[in-house]
Design goal:
The protein is an all-alpha fold. The chain has helices at residues 17-51, 55-83, 85-104, 109-137, 141-172, 182-196, 210-233, 237-259, 273-303, 308-314, 316-332, 338-359, 365-391, 399-432, 441-449, 451-461, 463-478, 480-502. Helix 2 runs antiparallel to helix 7, helix 5 runs antiparallel to helix 10 and helix 7 packs antiparallel against helix 8.
Length: 508
Amino acid sequence: MPAASREPDPEAPRAGRREWAALVVLMLPVLLISIDNTVLSFALPEIAAELRPSAAGQLWIVDIYPLVLAGLLVAMGNLGDRYGRRRMLLIGASGFGVVSALAAVAPDGAWLVAARALLGVFGAMLMPSTLSLLRSLFLDRRQRRLAIAIWATGFSVGSAIGPVVGGVLLEHFWWGSVFLIAVPVLLPLLVLAPILIRESRDPEPGPIDAAGIALSMAALAPVVFAIKHVATEGIDPLAIALAAIGVVAGALFVRRMRRRPNPMLDVGLFAVPAFGGGVVINLVSVFSLVGFLFFATQHLQLVVGLSPLDAAIALAPGVVTMIASGLLAVVLVKRIRPAFVIAGALSISLAAYVVMAITGGDAGTGPVVLAFALLGLGIGTAETLSNDLIIASVPPAKAGAASAVSETAYELGAVLGTAVLGSVLAAAYRSSLEIPAGIGAEDAAAARETLAAAGEAAERVGGAEGAVLLESARHAFDSGVLSTSLVGAALMALAVTISLVVLRRVRA
């Protein structure tokens, strides 16, 4: 029987001030990683203007970090179980801080992509450790559920305040400042974690499964790369080959895990409704959030014309609803089964995409603000409960591997949200853009790449022709609103169905 359905053990020692203080410290990397997934959306226009990456390069700047992180999470979670979760946390924090400083001074797009890839490596060390360490800090099950709920709310808070932080920084500093957030956030962690957090590891880890680690990476990265490639270049032999590699590696990984006496990941957990359903809900929630922000942040700045700070303020209601709904979920699930709470929450997120679909290309500030508030209300609830279900369904010794699965779903959702909805948006932009007569070939080619590049081209051309080019680019960008909104709404409807079917018997 999954741990989520058992009654609390009255003999388990209760956490004291030290453990709750440790929870605050463990919230720091959670906030940082989730902020990092959304703050870059606000900096993207300035990065595009200064570094001038291609449309594919722009997507890689956003996607390479969660792609690498997702590919390594299972491996790093397993290594943390074996060698020490606190040790992995401290190594990840140190590396993340150093590489963040290097990313802030990137002279070109290639440097930034490489730095983001390294951030993915160290980020993969951070995230499984935070959630799995909660299992050793909070032995009383009721306290642990509250701690996990607070931890999960940190994801929602970080994702929500990312745009606000980005807006404030970009209003006063250069785009590299969004990467320097890591330094002041991680310094307290490096100082306090050795004092407040005891080392924790799997007492019977078994031998290192190098082949399993390699297969877990080979199963995730090629599939995500194939999806990105199809979205930008269409279906071709490369995309088919990458997808095939990922599928074959995934099948071999599952087969290997089933045959090993002490596997790095018990794939049988996916048959447990609370675990499997929680993973899917986590992935879909982040997909919808990051995909929406990819469009909304550019729309508010480059189409409506708001400054980064004003755009962040416009999204503030969504921040409030996301935080509030994450905390409210803990109360609601005491009286209502998780399936119905999650389904209701995701239905509200579906309504957010309906608002955008109805307003279409005429979406100004108001519809975007309303839609993000509705989206935040649903996502805050769904993410809190899905993470709680995942970690409560596994034995404490395997907390690192289970946490890694939860984080993999989160990062995979971030990749797919940007890759799928971002690519749909890019395709609609290119097909709808009309280049006015008299625009040079070089400026026309730049304008077809991204909306930010079109703005630069329009400024170079100047006069009436430049104004017409800019207006055409803005209209073309917003023409993708309907397509992306329909994809997002369909995905939310699927998630509602999954939660009602898979989680219907799961109790809090």
